[in-house]
Fold:
Amino acid sequence: MNRVREVIRQLVELQERDQKILAVEAEIASLDPQRAGLRQRAEAARTRLDGIRQEIKANESHRKDLELEVESQREAIARYSIQQYQTKKNDEYRALTHQIDTCKRAIFQLEDRQLDSMEKAEQFQRELDAAARSDQEVRQTVDHQLGDMDEREAALRQALAGLQEERTRIAAGIGDTLRGQYERLLKHRGARVVVGVEHGVCGGCHMILPPQVLISCRTSQELVQCPNCSRILYFTPEMDMSQAGLR
Ligand SMILES: [Zn+2]
Structure:
């Protein structure tokens, strides 16, 4: 194998590791947003449960108020009854009868509201049971998925360490100048630095390559870069030169 072809082979090998490294790093980076999404789901379930608990409390305290109100209306009735018993005046007696009737109507309405509140309490209890079940299910699912993600991350980090080791080993076999060139392209173009030529175009930017560049590529006497994107070009016999008519 000639020297240029050997260098290309090493660069392609390095590039394969870099592509894998970038993919693994991207997957690791995607884990935290996924975790945040899962935690949000668990929080939403918990917030709903807490909300229902609050409503139950508010409803209970409302019912206590109603009870107190009924109580005070009953006391008023008792008071008016005693006054009725004590009075000798007919108009005063009638006025007290009217007061007592007003209290009784008020109690009637309060009892209606107490019934409403009791129905609401039953409804809230059903909602609470459902929300508690859902909270527990969501929490179990989320915990399970978070555990899976931690395992996945550990595996990814291990794979990454292996890939980086391989990368260091491969990079050490490539000359400093060429490696520097590769690293600069990697930084600007991502992990597609060494690209094939097919149908006479650059495999990176797809520009049609001048015939002279294609000839240089085919003869592999020197390292050729795309005049447009500067990526390192290579050519193997199974690639098609047809577009430039150099078959
Ligand atoms: Zn190009």
Notes: The radius of gyration is 41 Å.
